Amino acid sequence: MQSYDYDTDEELDYSGTNIHVIKNKETFEKIISESTKTNKMVVMNFNATWCEPCVSASRFYIESSKKYPYFLFVAVDIDDLDELASAYGVDATPTFFFLLGGTTIDTLVGAHKEQFEKKMEILARYNITKPGSLSKPSRVQTILTTHVTIFTMQNPKLLHLFINVTFPFDTRKGKTGNPHIQTLLITSFPQCCLLL
């Protein structure tokens, strides 16, 4: 059983941070739309002011927002936007969603600092918008089949695959380090086939 260090007088306070506190659906849609245009990773925190684990999680959420300023951090109070929480299937707080291009690529339920930090490190490693990398992918292709042929102009090429896999709720419990991201190096072959 995990224990939390609570300060019952403490409330969720994101003032003075780069975390966007969402109060209405229009603001949320605008931020998601902008992040999709700029291909910026979104780290979304569904929380509640009455939730003690949320207060605990807010500490490491704020730390991460400072450590990864090239990500977009969003906080949503489920009592303010219960429709949005329902749309994302939130049934516990805190719940974190990691989005790229408006698509959920990973989630974390609970105030699990070590798991959250591990996910952040993995996502930062594969983030294509951090300083020193391309601002956008040179080509994005949706893969709907399990066999894809990729033609390369110059070799080698690095390919980041974001694999969106939905698991039943009970299989997500206990899973750690499952970012659904794979990196493949396409070699100097004139044609390379990927079997997914």
Automatic annotation (TrEMBL):
<dbReference type="InterPro" id="IPR050620">
    <property type="entry name" value="Thioredoxin_H-type-like"/>
</dbReference>
<dbReference type="InterPro" id="IPR013766">
    <property type="entry name" value="Thioredoxin_domain"/>
</dbReference>
<dbReference type="InterPro" id="IPR036249">
    <property type="entry name" value="Thioredoxin-like_sf"/>
</dbReference>
<feature type="domain" description="Thioredoxin">
    <location>
        <begin position="1"/>
        <end position="149"/>
    </location>
</feature>
<dbReference type="Pfam" id="PF00085">
    <property type="entry name" value="Thioredoxin"/>
</dbReference>
<protein>
    <recommendedName>
        <fullName>Thioredoxin domain-containing protein</fullName>
    </recommendedName>
</protein>
